[in-house]
């Protein structure tokens, strides 16, 4: 059976608006107006606020979504700016860690006699080398008490000469002789200075480390203008091996028996004793500013706890520096100064500034043996050196001397006891006599000391006035570490910015790329329209 069917009406398919507004890159769409093209791009946007603005036909709704989008944009920019402002201050936090070790590297110990020049070392030839008459030498090194005193500030020179004393004319003839001696002493070569100072075998009579005898190879010498010959135990050069310790307590570590050689003291040394500096093995000693004074007649004990601080370099606030690698070069000389520590860097900076302003240097900061030392008896030069010091106190350093990136120091607990005891005194007398018999011919031996000498002072009192004992040991093998750590890692920068965009605008990195693509498509469309009109 045949049925009559009505023909179906063919409904023409209308192109969708977003299809009209989706031109392929590189193809011309001459029939699509700019408004429709732009509207299509906005409707396809993954940013919810933008797509709602383009798709809705209500003007009120469009205004509300525009307001929401603008507020979100400003909120995102403001919060991102606040975070970036904190981020680019490079804040840090300090972490505390305590390491329990089985062994620790033993620190260096520097020992100096407070007397820089031995009285008996000055003879006619050495006084001529100093360009001072032998008569003045005898007056200078007569056993009298000096008449000056004063604090030390950056340089030990203020203890001997200052501009104020010159202006007030308070310097006596004897003080001027002393200043004249110090000026010529600063100009002496290192070999002659060493000969005038105390020797290691006279200063350190006996030394043991962890119960074993030490040798002279464990000590190194350096010259200090203020103290003369100083000797450092366990100083590490590039090829030296550090001494380690596994024990704690006073029966371990380093033990030194010291001799002052009291008879060699001069008028230049108002105090009687030793200067002891405990410092890391890689860092040179600075006895003028650090350390402890040890009195004779005592056994001084130093119990140590090791602490290390680690800082962060630029761009963080401390802007620390690895000392030992950076050098400074003077404009007036061809000599480079390599800084081993922040203190030495400051001294070298002061040295260069004095050389630039005064055309001479402070002899107490003798970091450059080839530069000319100032005459401490010359008023104008001393006043110039004081001006440099005052400039440093009121202004920033002209040199860059930041904090060290890694600094190890030792918390020191000190204690002392009278030494020697009467029985120990007898042992010391016998030991010294035996030592003389081994090193001196029998015809030159001094008689065995009597209980009381001609001056009425007993040998026990003489030993107590001349000798001292020092013990240095670890109180614990714990190593305390203070370490700076950045508050923000690099990955947190992207996390914070992404979180702000997601919270305020509801977009991700992919949506941000899509916004950039929209701008690129719009620019391409405008270029194609312009080319068509031409």
Description:
The protein has a domain at 17-88 and 489-533. It has 534 residues and is of the alpha+beta class. Helix 2 crosses helix 3, helix 4 (59-87) runs antiparallel to helix 15 (490-504) and helix 11 (342-358) packs across helix 12. The chain has helices at 17-20, 34-43, 48-55, 59-87, 124-129, 134-140, 163-168, 173-186, 190-196, 200-203, 342-358, 379-394, 422-439, 459-466, 490-504, 509-533; strands at residues 92-100, 104-105, 108-113, 204-209, 212-213, 219-224, 228-233, 244-245, 254-259, 274-279, 292-294, 298-310, 327-329, 336-338, 406-418, 467-486. The protein is elongated and about 120 Å long. The strands form 4 sheets. Strands 1, 4, 5, 9, 12, 15 and 16 form a 7-stranded mixed sheet that branches.
Give the termini separation.
66 Å
**What does the radius of gyration come to?**
40 Å
What is the overall shape?
elongated
Portion in beta strands: 15-25%
Mean pLDDT: 76
Please describe the biggest sheet, giving its number of strands, its sense, and whether it closes into a barrel.
Answer: 7 strands, mixed
> What structural category arises from helix and sheet content?
alpha+beta
Number of strands: 16
Helix content: 25-40%
Count of alpha and pi helical runs: 16
* Low-confidence runs of at least 5 consecutive residues: 1-28, 143-154, 326-338, 442-456
């Amino acid at each position: 059976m045949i049925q009559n069917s009505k023909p179906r009406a063919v409904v023409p398919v209308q192109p969708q608006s977003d299809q009209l507004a989706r031109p392929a890159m590189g193809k011309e769409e001459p029939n699509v107006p700019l408004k429709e093209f732009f509207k299509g791009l906005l409707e396809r946007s993954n940013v919810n606020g933008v797509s709602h603005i383009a798709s809705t036909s209500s003007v009120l709704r469009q205004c509300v979504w525009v307001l929401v989008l603008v507020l979100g944009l400003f909120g995102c920019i403001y919060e991102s700016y606040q975070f970036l402002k904190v981020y680019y201050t490079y804040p840090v936090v300090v972490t505390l860690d305590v390491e329990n070790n089985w062994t620790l590297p033993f620190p260096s110990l520097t020992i100096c006699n407070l007397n820089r020049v031995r009285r008996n070392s000055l003879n006619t030839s050495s006084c001529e080398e100093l360009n001072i008459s032998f008569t003045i030498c005898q007056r200078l090194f007569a056993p009298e008490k000096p008449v000056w005193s004063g604090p030390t500030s950056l340089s030990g020179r203020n203890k001997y000469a200052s501009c104020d004393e010159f202006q007030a004319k308070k310097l006596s003839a004897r003080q001027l002789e002393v200043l004249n001696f110090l000026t010529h002493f600063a100009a002496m070569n290192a070999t002659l200075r060493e000969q005038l100072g105390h020797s290691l075998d006279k200063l350190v009579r006996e030394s043991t480390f962890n119960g074993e005898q030490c040798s002279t190879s464990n000590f190194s010498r350096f010259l200090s203008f203020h103290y003369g010959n100083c000797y450092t135990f366990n100083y590490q050069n590039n090829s030296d091996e550090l001494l380690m310790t596994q024990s704690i307590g006073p029966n371990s570590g380093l033990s030194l028996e010291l001799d002052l050689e009291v008879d060699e003291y001069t008028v230049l040394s108002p105090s009687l004793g030793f200067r002891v500096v405990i410092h890391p093995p890689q860092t040179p000693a600075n006895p003028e500013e650090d350390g402890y004074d040890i009195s004779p007649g005592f056994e001084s004990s130093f119990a140590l706890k090791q602490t290390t601080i680690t800082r962060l370099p630029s761009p963080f606030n401390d802007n620390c520096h690895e000392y030992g690698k950076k050098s400074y070069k003077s404009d007036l000389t061809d000599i480079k100064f390599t800084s081993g520590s922040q203190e030495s860097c400051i001294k070298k900076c002061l040295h260069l500034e004095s050389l630039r302003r005064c055309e001479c240097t402070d002899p107490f900061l003798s970091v450059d043996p080839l530069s000319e030392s100032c005459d401490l008896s010359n008023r104008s030069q001393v006043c110039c050196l004081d001006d440099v010091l005052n400039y440093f106190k009121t202004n920033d350093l002209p040199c860059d001397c930041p904090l060290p990136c890694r600094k190890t120091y030792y918390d020191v607990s000190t204690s002392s006891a009278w030494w020697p005891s009467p029985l120990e005194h007898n042992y010391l007398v016998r030991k010294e006599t035996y030592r003389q018999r081994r090193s001196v011919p029998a015809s030159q031996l001094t008689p065995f000391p009597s209980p009381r000498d001609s001056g009425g002072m007993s040998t026990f009192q003489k030993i107590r006035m001349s000798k001292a004992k020092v013990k240095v040991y670890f109180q614990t093998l714990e190593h305390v570490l203070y370490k700076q750590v950045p508050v923000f890692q690099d990955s947190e920068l992207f996390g914070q910015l992404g979180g702000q965009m997601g919270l305020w605008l509801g977009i991700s990195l992919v949506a941000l790329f899509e916004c950039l693509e929209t701008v690129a498509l719009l620019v391409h469309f405008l270029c194609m329209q312009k080319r068509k009109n031409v």
